[in-house]
Amino acid sequence: YWQEGARNRLEMYFLGLCIKNGVSFESAKRIISEVADRTNDSEKQARLDLVEYHYRDRLNVSLKGCSGIREIIREMRLE
After folding, report:
1. Is residue 16 helix, strand or coil?
2. Residue-wise pLDDT tens digits, 50-67
3. How far apart are CA 65 and CA 54, in angstroms?
4. DSSP per position, 29-78
5. In the chain, what's the furthest Cα-to-Cα distance?
6. Cβ 78 vs Cβ 26: under 8 Å
7. Cα–Cα distance, 10 to 13 (Å, whole number)
8. Confidence (pTM)
9. Residues 40, 42, 45, 47, CA torsion sign
10. Would you call 12 helix, strand, or coil by DSSP?
11. Residues 10, 1: contact at Cβ < 8 Å?
């Protein structure tokens, strides 16, 4: 699920993890689409746009992956 206040960062870090591990654009987009559907995310199109942006336009910019996801988990534990 998407944690309120952390959805964009969580998606970005997840996409970083996908890119670093060779997950295809199509697979990443399907996963994000499914998560958005299951969570009734009102910003589904924005989430899908981020998949395209990170896979097609930011290939030379390193994204956090696991380390970013760990940061969000630590933050949620502190709340």
Report:
1. helix
2. 999 888 877 656 677 777
3. 13
4. HHHHHHHHHHTT-TTHHHHHHHHHIIIII-TTS----HHHHHHHHHHHHH
5. 35
6. no
7. 5
8. 0.74
9. negative
10. helix
11. no
The amino acid that residue 50 corresponds to is L
Exposed e or buried b per residue across 44-74, where buried means at least 16 C-beta atoms within 10 angstroms of its C-beta: eeebeebbeebbeeeeeeebbbeebbeebee
What digits encode the pLDDT tens for the residues 17-44? 898 889 999 999 999 999 999 989 899 9
Residue 9 DSSP SS3: helix
- Say if residues 17 and 65 touch (Cβ distance below 8 Å): yes
Cα separation of 68 and 76, whole Å? 13
Q: Residue type for 7, please?
A: R
Lookup: tokens for 7: 């959805």
